């Protein structure tokens, strides 16, 4: 027979910590703690299976459940020696939700259940505190009416406020027992008036209605939204915990608090927490009274304090992780309401993991699994002061496009950004979307906030590359001229805003930021990760280890990445070198050239600039490989499209505006993503690629002469057929061998290709014949495999994720079953032709932990990600290795 | 040792007809004819291998070749009893090109080689015709100077003209022997003046220089261009034929002509040809004198005539195909210069094939292989009168986008087209590119000519669907206002032009057209094709045969297709039903609706119209399956984008222009091909698909009630994940089952999907679980697999084909090694899930013979193509079956 209810209490429990899926996190932990002898108020848990059945069967409970609840309630009453509704010594219980994954505050809770007109008298007498009893009753009525019957909470708050103003008091606690009696009486009247029924006096009726309400709250809109936002899936539902009430507000010998076995902000091994005397848990949360630090409890009640310290040590030892505990002291007796592995900041996670290894509590491997890549990422970016953050209110939320927090004055153009920063102001650049011309302003700004665009929009990609915080695609933001409006509130040029690029949150004020310092612990921790990563051995892969490279287009980025542990450059986008003063003009001149001869003249000037950039990159990455991608974007991305700008450009280039306009309009494409770009430019304008190869090889030769080791890897983008690569390889070899011969240098270069067109993946065996390496461009591969333009998916991908058609945004985390299959196909076909071929990934997915794990398993030799993601990738890679060992 | 030269003559030959690749078509045939005892002037062939070596080795001949030529020349002199350059009885030879594939007129020829100052005297005496001798000499000088030395032909023409005007004569033939002596003398002077050398008197020097020239002409620009245009690839080069000259201009007992063993225009079994007395072959070609019909030769010289008839019968019997022969009569003696399988029109090809089966000369299978699908296609379209065509000059050439010829007055807008046609004029619509609003004008026009766009542009696709001739992407056409200019010549509104959509040619005049009549022979022929096709058995495919369906959006198209043998509809595009008066407005209303409720109101009206259309289609296709694709294009394709049109639409729809503008601008996409379209619309606007399913099933039920059998197949486009299909299938089933229950009808419908997204092909095993059938949308699959936007490939695909990166335009003929691999993957994955699943193709490739063969081999059950392509597809399918048997 099915079992629906699990009892805990009296040192015994039917569940344990392993049964989270069935009993929810709270229920499983209550059972575990009970078994461990921790003083937990007894009770029972109705399983998540009941919730699943409830929704499957049109909100009907499974047969037999009600009987089981009755039996367990009896058992509880027997154990406690109290009965629900007893006029003399009534049992009071709480009814709480608790899913397998914590969803704080999203679902409903009913406290003080069992209160009625008779019980309130009994409690008053028993505790000698009539005021407490009536306050508990009125709280119960309010909570029950709201939670179980859906009554508006304001009805009750209004009653309370009126009586308070009549009594001329400010705080609830200033009301007397008689005042509260009046409150209860008016509450009950209001309840009757609205529901057309009396407030239920029968505790069983109260209990079943509350259980109903809690199960019902599993699918309230906020809970659904929370699960969506936090990617919580495949749960049966919530469990319901019915537990004996304990009260921290019985008087000055009572209290309630929260404590951590280590400091969750810093990770330091100190007992950390706070409590309130004569208060209930909700008072701590509400923040009306300022709690006391946990150390002060020692003076107040040494016995309780010592017991709490012992339990916390015990729990940490038992769970082998930092614990977050809730406790209540009822008339001098300590109860533990909850313990769980404590949430912690990134810095704390690293410190605790390293400390616990040093304390020999956990192994290095376990330590590595204890810090999530996302937490590690926090260590490399400024963050909002954790002490301040909880008091802030979010004005809107966008995509967490580039991590870290930033605060500055609003500016709306890249020019403003540069001007204001020159005047010593900190600015935050707010735009609909950024474009290549904004690079200067983006560099100057503390952070970037856009109203459109996704995780791989221009703003997002560039910001991540620069390490600048960015919140993108903030749809509620309406920008008009020199201000923006969000949810009716206006923010003007020069106003302060703060963004948290790690969470996507936007705040309408100036907020203090803190920057975690990179500690010795971190170095130790990443050292362990590297050891695991670099020793990894995989079936069929000849080379040991798994390499982390970086995407970097400028020497300064290369230096940052190297500091963060990058072992080479996996993607240097040459076209990013064409933006900036003096360069773009030259490039535009080249584009609008009427014939190859004119084009070559413009290219000659560009050659010098490219060579200089490459020399910087090669020097910064001396001793490590540098993959340079030849020109990729369509030419129209480099020229203006509106008549005014075209006219200006025509003047600069000294050509007729009409001719320039014709030229630019001839570059227009209906679907630029699928147009004349990548190696297609190399085929139709061979002189461009020739110039780039000349710049690369000349730079390499010149840097090599200084004694530095250079390993240039020339990468041809957007190859779809072996013939393209065959031709372009020959061209590049011809240019390179000429220069090497002339320079008398011994630079060893390789030539490879990106695999980013589905056809290239399918025909990778043929393409491999002409390639020294493959680099998977999973951004474009995702676009073409799905038929999704990343600039346009905003109109349906959110809906797709909501309807579970897509389980992840495929531009953030690689689509393993579709795009992933193509990657695997290409790897296996490519290695059929060249068994030892080096293969990696340079798309945005190279920094995504879930994707990194896939790439590791699929057999790639390296991933490449933006500089600030390198440490994260080192950890994610180590975790992949560890998981693959299981 | 390598052999470079192959002799033929005296009834023996070193080559034969099978050696075309080595000896070229002409050389192989000369050898074969010689062996068959046909009176061929003797000579020898220098192989194509020499040409290959020549180009490989920097224009040097292989060692030993020259010696072989000397030996063969000696053999020829011995056989003929004449020596080159002999002053008494000199041998004269021709030097001609001849590749494995005929390239008429593209390469060089030298005639009368061996003439010099002495030989001319000898010939004069020997023939008793001094005038002939000097004329032959002057022709030789002119040809040699031009071909072998690159002198401008006008130099010689000027000399000739001057002497003619001095002599006051009009024709060359009116010049006397003395006149011609003067011509020769002036020719030699001119030669010397330009080349600084005497005209060579040594026949060996003449010979080697001419052989050089002919090999050199393999790579002249016109020959290269011809091979590109005609997709001639993988040839080594040309062979060179050195052959004894025979002369048809020795006098009235001489002559020259061309004859066919059957009429190449009609295919009738009559001896067909023409000849000129006292003339050389070039005179026939030049068209100065009107040739006589071959029958008249019987009277002139019965013996020669009978001999010619006997040879022609012999040759036809030998080659088992209609022959095209060139002959010369030299002083009463018949020589055959060439025989080859004769080119023929489509109608002739069918008639000859059927007749030859009836005559028991060839089998039905052979007959089916004798008619190319392209030839068959001619039978279904008007064509330029073949008698007139050769005298026309082409003003420009575009893509042969929709077959058939059309002639009409130029109009530049769809409105003009409709107005002028209403006035009884025939028009040809000339546009940069067409768009959906032009449908009315496109229907009214005789033909469509566009200056941009490819084989799958809007104009091309719609024209093929309508069966309207179309030449697309005619780049040389510059349209400005009410005229267009092509190569400097202006054509105005109302001027006549003629297009040939089968060849892509454009003519600047009114031209007579003829429409082939569909004959009994054709029915017989296609009957044979169907027998082969429908009985085809393939490994692993349970059902026998291979089905030809049609793409049709309107009842009238369905009727045409059925007449042409379509066995169902493979693609009915529902959105095409939304264009046209009264419909587009409703659809636009639906698009701009602010919420689902408003949208439903608009959809209700559309429902009625769609239902009516579907009833028409189901009735026309009674008894056959009809695959209906739900809405596919992005919504912005249905609304205007320029402010003026938006304003007009706002008035029609009774909304504020600014609101409409916002709505329309919110629909804008950067890459619409990869945007919010296909089933993505079905997911985000379920009410649209619900309406369409309701219309389909209601129509099916109502038509079924009339006693007609209906087999609706609902097709969901652009599926990329199984989840999309799962959800949309459920929605469709819910709507359909409701209607079927209500109507009490027993309509059996199926639900399938298009496989057109690479991800769908890769995950076809998962998708198959929710699909009753697959239909490959190879247009989009090609776009996404290659990353090519078909609207934008014009900037590089032509260059790709030129450089042999692409061997075919992948939008015309399926890319077997890339897209094809994906198709095969999807077939095999899909059949893993559902072994008997019906699979077909509905992309443009469904009408391309080469693609049809691939689809047949890959295991598809059907192809679907535009109505006018159905007979072609029936033949192509039968040919595929026959080839697969080999």
Characterise this structure.
Two copies of one chain form a homodimer. The model of chain A has no long low-confidence stretch (mean pLDDT 92). Chain A is elongated and about 105 Å long. In chain A, strand 12 (323-330) and strand 13 form a beta hairpin. In chain A, the strands form seven sheets. In chain A, strands 15-25-24-17-18-19-20-16 form an eight-stranded mixed sheet. Chain A has an eight-stranded parallel beta barrel with strand order 27-28-29-30-31-32-33-34, surrounded by six helices. The first copy, chain A, has a six-stranded antiparallel sheet with strand order 2-1-3-8-6-7, sandwiched between helices. In chain A, 46% of the residues lie in helices and 17% in strands. Chain A has 35 helices and 34 strands. Chain A is of the alpha/beta class and 886 residues long. At the A-B interface, helix 26, helix 28, helix 29, helix 31 and helix 33 of A face helix 26, helix 28, helix 29, helix 31 and helix 33 of B.
Intertermini distance of chain A: 35 Å
The largest β sheet of chain A comes out as: 8 strands, mixed
Most residues in contact, chain pair and counts? A-B, 49 and 49 residues
Q: Spatial order of the strands in the main sheet of chain A? A: 15-25-24-17-18-19-20-16
Give the tally of β-strands of chain A: 34
Task: Give the overall shape of chain A.
Answer: elongated
Unreliable residue stretches of chain A: none
**Fraction in beta strands of chain A:** 15-25%
Helix content, binned percent of chain A: 40-55%
So what's the oligomer here?
Answer: homodimer
Radius of gyration of chain A: 32 Å
Average pLDDT level of chain A: 92
Question: What class would the helix/strand composition of chain A place it in?
Answer: alpha/beta
Instruction: Figure out the total of helices of chain A.
Output: 35
